[in-house]
Each structure stands twice: as C-alpha cells, then as structure tokens.
Design goal:
Its main location: endoplasmic reticulum. It is built from two helices and seven strands; from the N terminus they run αβββββββα. β3 and β4 form a beta hairpin. About 7% of the residues have low confidence.
Amino acid sequence: MFSLFKRFSVVSSTALSFAFFAGAFVVLSFWFELYRSNVFSIDSSIDNIKPSINVRTSRYFGSISGKPKENVKLTFDLDADLTNLFNWNTKQVFVYLTAEYSGAKKPDTSSEVTFWDQIVKDKDHANLSLRNVKSKYSVWDIEDKISERDLTFKLHWNIQPWVGNLVYGSTLSAHNISIEPRDTNSRSSSNDGRSAKKIRNKIAKQN
C-alpha cells in the first residue's frame, strides 16, 4: 500500500499538471481571441495638438544646479475605439500617449516621452472620444531644449489580463508636429514668481 506521503505526492503532481494545462489553455485562447478581434490593427485619431513651453529651474522639472530647462505640456484631441481589447480574460487596459523625436546634437539617436495616460477598467468606457485634453506630465529632454524638434505622437496600449502575461501594442495612426522655438521675450512661471517677489520686497522697503 502507498504511504500517506506518496499519496499526497501523487495528488499534488496531478493537481499541478492540471493547473499548468488549464493555464496554458486560457492563455492560448486569450491570444486567439485577440488576433481574431484584430487588436493589433486598431486605428486612432490624434489631432489638434497644441504644445506650450515653460522654462523651469527646479530639479523636479529636470533642471540641474538651477540651470534653465525647457518643459513642454500640451492639449490634444483623441479618438480611439479600444473595445476589442476587452474579452473574458481582460482585467483592465492601460493607455498612454507618447512622442518620439531625434536628438538635436545626435540626430541618429531617438528619445520617447510620455505625455498622458489613463486606465480603462471596462468595455463600456473603452471607446475614447476626448477633446482638449491636458497632458498629465511636464516633459523635458536630457538636453537643455526640447523646442525646434519634430515629434511623432502615437497611442499605445497595455492589456493586463486575469491570467497570463501583459500584452503590449499600439494603434496604427501617428501624428507629427514641430515644436516652434520658445518666445524668448516671454517669462517662465518660475521667473515670474521671482520677479513678483522682488517687487513685493521693494514695495515693503519703501513703506
């Protein structure tokens, strides 16, 4: 007769084998459903992109030792139907808007930054139609300037399934814009803050 330990080993081995094959079946079925829904051929529309440039001197905005650093924020319109990304194994979808551009000093290198992201929790909210959306992040480059660059915007998505690995992809369309040189006559918000403080101190001394 089998000992209790041998019986436990046989049951555990059988259970693990069943769990492995069941998990593999779920993942394969999930990928089959994604391909059947043509999720890697989803289109999107990214329009009306309006960038604005500010010069920052804080290290939280990329500045080093108080050296001025250009930061870009923007507004944009976005249309994308992501409902096909949802099926029985989709927990949620992470969507993010990126811009890719070449370096000014090294044109053969490229950088990619993220301006905006959003978590889509269910199929009912997966058809995005957004207008005049503000970017969530203030973006800067490793170089001092990010203006006078050609940026290519693209919408990416990331499926987080209940079972299986993360699935990454992007929509087919891309939108190109050129960031105009910053108006050197305009002051950044940080410079405005320092100027206002100087004025207040001057008034206080006069009084």
